[in-house]
Write a structure and sequence with these properties.
The complex is a heterodimer of chains A (538) and B (64). Chain A has 538 residues and is an alpha+beta fold. Chain A has 13 helices and 23 strands. In chain A, strand 14 (241-247) and strand 15 (251-258) form a beta hairpin. The longest helix of chain B has 18 residues, at 8-25. Classes of the chains: A alpha+beta (538), B mainly alpha (64).
């Protein structure tokens, strides 16, 4: 990471200092923790909050003494906001973040593509918001600090690891000495340079792209609305691609591509960065004074582990997969990992599901990773053409797109979408449905008559969605015998969204994805079998 | 006006295949390849009106 200043000099964010606190293990005490999470970044803390939501305590091990520097991941999707909402963090995010629904792509100075992301009365959150990662980390750690089931240990570094049949022992190095920390399961959420990956001798596999981007934050007061803007071959930076996003606190993120013939070391010199940014701001008519706040160099990768579950060590976020920046899938994917893993690990820890359930985490999230690779890979080939052939074709597509719709779909940045676990082993389907969300998918965004939203049902429990009050009587005795299953009866007007008959039934997982559905009223034995399958008992 | 015959997905695949064909043929034969491709596609069009429209589109694009 290249940075020209220390964190204390940020123009907009006061980085907190987290002191080291001596844990019981350093006094000769300690216990077998249910879960240790390596990495106190956004994925690790989200995983801790997910586990706490299910009553499972965790210890988070973080090497640093503050939050990650710079804006980094800045675009958070509607699905991420829904996940954060269930954790009690979305309120703080929405007070600070800048929502957006549109984007414009330009060839030189001419608009060639207009991105429009649907947003309507049935959506609780905007399709995308911009917020610096340091703010998201602050909101997550503030929430975790108020949660008695989460123990974040700052200035603590994992330097060794021993795996046994029933536990993992981490060797933790601290300012006041080393200690062993024992846990039944370990979540490795320690980022792109994961120490856990190294300690287990694992490596990422896949593809790295040649294109390099310099990403910079500047302080600039501008009234230009919040939207994604991209310029291909702009007069200000010929041969380059420039992206621009507005962030809170008058911070603007500018990403620009370094041409193949440009020397990275030279281009990382602060005067050169200022020169290129000044040229771009002048080109788009921004004349107010501005200041450089932070910068870094970025290369696109599509890399992942062969398996995200290594016995009792489970990888999440950048420790498991590196995805290209284009389409804003990096941290959004990591948050989805934590959301997928939380309920499964909680059920296993509590003895309510077999360890085999964790295999579905690896299978589902690796499938999601490959979907990201496919979409982000296409975006990356267009954003950073890897060969002359791609460069020639891109130029032709952009030139035609100025006045022809024909090639505009090629310019679509393919923004992050929730993944549909189509092939999940946890699914039970009913072929009688002709529409509605199939198993593995998320229900549609819908506003309910009580003023709430369907996505509010993402909670602690498996949720049965029924479409007729008569189902309460039918399911009542069965539900009374189940722990962790709730019933919600939706109003008649929502039947069409689910292609439901009055006696139809949907079973949602705790992460909100559909686990099973029945067009006609199911037998209780069939319902029980679907629940068991969704809990990994099939 | 030309009809939009390809789906978005097919258009993406066509883009990839053309880019890879350009890489395969190499820079020195690029012009011949593109001319041959243009003539091949023209031969599959319904009539000269469509060919003229395509030429006009490409001319405008080339002048930008």
């Amino acid at each position: 990471m290249a940075s020209f200043k220390d964190q204390a000099r940020s123009h907009y964010f006061t980085y907190p200092y987290f002191a080291f606190r001596r844990p019981a293990e350093l006094e000769g005490g300690g216990q077998l923790h249910p879960v240790a999470i390596v990495g106190g970044g956004p994925v690790g803390v989200t995983a801790a909050l997910e586990l706490a939501r299910f009553g499972v305590p965790s210890v988070v091990i973080e090497a640093d003494d503050t939050l990650a520097e710079g804006s980094r991941a800045i675009c958070f999707s509607r699905r991420t906001l829904e996940i954060l909402d269930a954790l009690g963090v979305a309120g703080a995010v929405m007070k600070k973040a800048l929502p957006w629904t549109h984007g414009t792509s330009y060839y030189k100075d001419k608009p060639v593509f207009r991105l429009e992301m649907p947003h309507g009365e049935h959506d609780k959150f905007y399709p995308m918001v911009n917020l610096q990662q340091c703010y998201l980390e602050k909101f997550l750690t503030d929430r975790a600090a108020a949660e008695p089931l989460i123990d974040i240990r700052w200035q603590s570094r994992v330097v060794g690891l021993t795996r046994e049949a029933d536990k993992v022992t981490l060797d933790i190095e601290t300012p006041e000495g080393r200690y062993p920390l024992c846990a039944r399961y370990v979540i490795a959420a320690d980022g792109a340079r994961s120490v856990m990956r190294q300690l287990l001798g694992l490596s990422l596999h896949g593809q790295s792209y040649e294109g390099r981007y310099l990403i910079a934050d500047i302080v600039l007061r501008s009234d230009y609305p919040t939207e994604r803007r991209a310029w291909f071959d702009p007069p200000s930076n010929p041969g380059s691609t420039v992206l621009m996003h507005k962030q809170p606190d008058d911070i603007w993120r500018i990403d620009y591509q370094l041409r193949d013939d440009e020397d990275a070391e030279q281009q990382l010199q602060e005067p050169r960065i200022r020169q290129r940014i000044a040229a771009h701001l002048s080109f788009i008519g921004e004349t107010k004074p501005w200041e450089l706040d932070w910068f870094s160099l970025y290369k696109a990768h599509s890399l992942c582990l062969d398996d995200y579950v290594e016995d009792r060590v489970i990888f999440a976020g950048d420790a498991a997969h590196l995805v290209p920046i284009f389409g804003v899938r990096g941290l959004n994917s990591g948050i989805a990992d934590a959301n997928n893993l939380g309920w499964k690990l909680a059920l296993v820890i509590e003895g309510k599901a077999p360890p085999a359930l964790l295999r579905s985490y690896g299978a589902e999230r690796r499938a999601a990773t490959f979907d990201v690779f496919a979409n982000a890979g296409k975006s990356t080939l267009f954003m950073t053409p890897p060969s002359r052939g791609y460069a020639v074709m891109r130029e032709a597509a952009l030139r035609l797109a100025v006045d022809q719709a024909l090639t505009r779909p090629l310019i679509n940045p393919r923004q992050s979408q929730p993944f549909y676990y189509r092939e999940s082993a946890l699914n039970t389907d009913d072929r009688a449905f002709a529409g509605g969300p199939p198993p593995g998918a998320l229900p549609p965004g819908r506003r309910l008559t009580d003023g709430g939203y369907l996505c509010d049902l993402i909670g602690r429990a498996f949720t049965l969605l029924a479409f007729d009050d008569a189902m309460r009587d039918y399911l009542g005795p069965w539900l009374a015998a189940q722990a962790g299953v709730s019933l919600t009866v939706l109003t008649d007007d929502l039947r069409a969204d689910f292609d439901a008959a009055p006696a139809s039934l949907y079973l949602l997982r705790p992460d909100g994805h559909v686990a099973a559905r029945f067009k006609a009223r199911p037998s209780l034995a069939d319902l029980e079998a679907a629940l068991k399958r969704a809990q990994g008992n099939a | 006006m030309m009809s939009l015959g390809l789906s978005d997905s097919d258009l993406e695949q066509a883009f990839d295949r053309l880019a890879q064909a350009l890489d395969a043929v190499g820079e020195d034969k690029e012009r011949s390849f593109l001319a041959a491709l243009a003539l091949t596609l023209a031969g599959r069009m319904a009539g000269l009106t469509e060919v003229d429209a395509a030429i006009a589109m490409a001319l405008r694009a080339a002048e930008r």
